TrEMBL record, chains A, B:
One of its GO terms (molecular function) is DNA binding. SUPFAM superfamilies: NAC domain (SSF101941). This is NAC domain-containing protein. Keywords: DNA-binding, Nucleus, Transcription, Transcription regulation. GO terms for biological process: regulation of DNA-templated transcription. InterPro entries: NAC-dom, NAC_dom_sf. It holds the Pfam family NAM. Residues 6-160 form the NAC domain. PROSITE patterns: NAC.
Length: 203, 203
């Protein structure tokens, strides 16, 4: 299924475990449930310059800042590969274990990166890098070792949402309120409902 | 399209404007893009007792807390109707104007409610109530009045996400880390990748 065929309001918004499911298929070269995650060395781009290929378009705006985008990237250990022309991705916080469903199985690891513009200007851009975790039974130690496996990672890119009071749209709404007074009213008659057809909600 | 036919990772996760698009169709008795929002007097239920009808199931757990659910409810002005058997929904913050796309058109209003258990125990349950906003041209005043229209509202229910450090899953992950040491390693050979098949990622 392609993104273009989805009804309004539906989007690819996988949980961490679902994302690792796609990654496992990719690592094992098995068919993916949907062709929705492009291959791209996402860390080499400035986040705002990333090609539109994985953008989930909508005519309804508003969701732009919350939109999440996903990429398959080749797994690299080198932190130097996390630089773009305008800045760099700096890892943030501890690596997190992803646990499958209600079991105790660790199925992957997630590392979070924040984009810094120039030398040290922290931005709102966040990249989460997921890796599959495998287990290795050791004949010598009485325990199982866990390690990252596969030559691919999957990344989730998004912008941290600002609080409403600082948000441009909210301020815009406030200025509109000054010119068009708001009157809460009881349910409207059917003839008056047609008034809303002038809004941008029209197809 | 029914939810059950979607590939893994796809869900109904509309923006505010998209949700108002569904509501407008409902108010005007026009066909909806998808049969995904049930009619239910959601405010009369304890949030944890709400029927499973609008739950977007997944075999991958993990997303449970972040899951959003949607309901069409009859519009009521009466705050008393926002009580359930175990508590009540209290409005929180100012009503927010929803603006369509990049235009300045206010297409709806959003009111946020928090569920209080018993007399005053605040919970993590949040209900956002969306109403369509219409405009009325007044022959006497030199301005347009804005008002709520239609006999339906649409509600988005979710649980506020706890910070990772307080989150049960994160603590669980920590205890696992103590029993299964983690070793970051370079890309794995194909024979060793099969080790991950024991995880819960399997279909």
């Amino acid at each position: 299924m392609e993104i273009a065929n989805l009804p309004i309001g539906f989007r690819f918004n996988p949980t961490d475990a679902e994302l690792l499911y796609y990654l496992k298929k990719k690592v094992l070269s098995l068919p993916l449930p949907a062709n929705v995650i492009p291959e791209l060395e996402a860390f080499q781009f400035n986040p705002w310059d990333l090609p539109e290929i994985s953008k989930q378009r909508s005519d309804f705006g508003e969701g732009g800042l919350n939109e999440k985008r996903f990429f398959f990237c080749k797994r690299k250990k080198n932190l130097m590969s996390k630089c773009s022309s305008c800045g760099y991705w700096k890892s943030s916080g501890k690596e997190k274990q992803i646990v499958a469903g209600e079991s105790n199985h660790v199925i992957g690891m997630m590392k979070t990166f924040v984009f810094y513009q120039g030398r040290n200007m922290k931005t709102q851009w966040i990249m989460q890098e997921f890796t599959i975790a495998g287990h290795l039974k050791t004949p010598f130690l009485d325990q199982r070792l866990m390690m990252k496996v596969g030559n691919w990672v999957v990344c989730r890119l998004y912008q941290r949402v600002m609080r409403a009071r600082n948000h441009g749209a909210a301020e815009l709404g406030h200025s509109i309120a000054q010119t068009t007074p708001f009157i809460p009213m009881s349910p409207w008659s059917s003839s008056e409902i047609t008034d809303i057809s002038s809004s941008d909600l029209d197809e």
